[in-house]
Amino acid sequence: MNRLRVLTFFLAMLAALPTLPGTALAFTGLKPLVILMPGAGGPVSSDFVMRNRNLFRQAGFDTKVVTVPRAAVNTANVHGDRRKVFLIGVDRGASRVTAALALGAQVDAVVMLSGDYRKAIQTLMSPVLLPETLVVHHRGDRCGQTPPAHASAFASWSGGKAKIAWMSMSGMPDRNPCGPFGAHGFYFNDAEPVSAIIRFLKAQ
Fold first, then answer.
1. Which residues contact 173 (CB under 8 A, 6 or more apart)?
2. What is the pTM (predicted TM-score) of this model?
3. Minimal CA–CA distance to 153: which of 105, 195, 191, 120?
4. Mean pLDDT, residues 5-21 taken together
5. Which residues contact 149 (CB under 8 A, 6 or more apart)?
6. Do residues 131 and 161 lie in contact, with contact meaning Cβ atoms separated by under 8 Å?
7. Please, are residues 30 and 18 in contact by the beta-carbon 8 Å criterion?
8. Domain boundaries, the chain
9. What span, in angstroms and rounded, lies between the C-alpha atoms of 120 and 116?
């Protein structure tokens, strides 16, 4: 068999091989997936990630609502070899995001809103597990678990992996400082935080 025939045979064999997982990442045509993790009240209409789910879809993302960290890990790792995957969590959902990272979720970036960042540090223990992160936090958040100072401390602890998008919109005070209607929930003035999140995700 001459060299030309050997080369032709070799190329034919390569063409017949099955495609390995992950080798066609850029050619799948799948939209990036945003895994949404709502806060303490669960997937209710007043929750930030739930009330803005359609805006993420309109921006070109697929969405999936998950409330259990292990389920977020499974979802992220199943889809991650075919498209980009992001985690977004608000309030207690932010703690679930860090729990998913600690359990081995492989994602391209995360967004945490109005989170308990002291707990996030305790969960992760090291910024090594943290991907590129956007922290969205209101300067007037009065929830005892989520003071703005903890967001700043988390960003410093992250070693440059976490950036903060500070919000300062005004609105009517809420009796529950940790609920979705006050500064903790951005007074339902969602245009600015949603825009910041979409810009961040599209830059990844």
1. 182
2. 0.84
3. 120
4. 42
5. none
6. yes
7. no
8. 28-202
9. 6
Model confidence pLDDT, tens digit, residues 156-183: 999 999 999 999 999 988 889 999 999 9
Q: Which residue type sits at 76?
A: A
Look at 4-8, 50-54, 139-143 and tell me which has the smallest mean pLDDT.
4-8
The more confident residue out of 54 and 10 is 54
Tell me if residue 202 falls in helix, strand or coil. helix
Residue type present at position 190: D
> At CB < 8 A and 24+ separation, what contacts does 76-81 make?
76/35, 76/100, 76/105, 76/106, 76/107, 77/104, 77/105, 77/106, 79/33, 80/106, 80/107, 80/108, 81/21, 81/22, 81/25
- Superfamily of the domain at 28-202: Alpha/Beta hydrolase fold, catalytic domain (3.40.50.1820)
Cβ neighbour number for residue 134 with a 10 Å cutoff: 23
